[in-house]
Here is the input.
Amino acid sequence: QVQLVESGGGLVQAGGSLRLSCAASGRTFTSYLLGWFRQAPGKEREFVAAITWSGGSRTYADSVKGRFTISRDNAKNTVFLQMNSLKPEDTAVYYCAARSMLATSWAYWGQGTQVTVSS
Here is the structure.
């Protein structure tokens, strides 16, 4: 059974940094895309960033480019999201997700971790 467990959320002042982690287990992820999404109160869930497990190819939402960095540690089956220069509008629940690179939808989701950025 695939499990994605996020950690690292919290409260930070605007301009600060946080590092989120997502521990993945339950299968091999060599042909999987791992990603981060977020959902702010009253808004729809939105894509933040994604990375291929094997190739290290990364994509980002325009709103976080230059501020957030996605990376992975294959030995630990963990994906990270380094968030710098945080803004109040980054406040949301952040979710880790995984999908096969052959699939069109994200099949696996974590439980989410709250990130709150105060102004």
